[in-house]
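Tutorial handout. Part one gives the primary structure; part two gives the three-dimensional structure as tokens.
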Amino acid sequence: MQAEDFTCILEWEKVRKFRITNLLGHMDEALEVANSPTGGTYPVGTVIQLIPGEAMVKRAAGWAPDNSDWEFFALDVTADGATIMARGTQDVVNGFGGNCFDCHAKAAPQWDRICEEGHGCDPLPFTPEQIEMVQMADPRCP
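Part two.
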């Protein structure tokens, strides 16, 4: 993953509150998992963002087995694009001061570490409307 891979999230598919794309052409499979009422494993190349300043990317099986093969990213985003501030599996801290892995590790196994209501993760201190406002304000978007 390079900084230029993180583009305007408004151009990505919206599933409930988060935005999703797949950079390796597995979008149909990624959306099938995202929309499944019973969960599943996301295909390699899936990128998920709730807000512009953070992302998670699905890597190949075995890349980080303790983290279900997800890599977390803390991003600085401006109208000129994204800058990767931090990346990793268990030590990335998001813009709110929280450790990405600490929260996502609480997701029940069938959800492939994706945190949503009812998945086992701590609730976010933001309303859906606030999340939508932050997404709509992504400075990378035209």
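Part three, for discussion. The CA atoms of residues 17 and 129 lie 9 Å apart. The radius of gyration is 14 Å.
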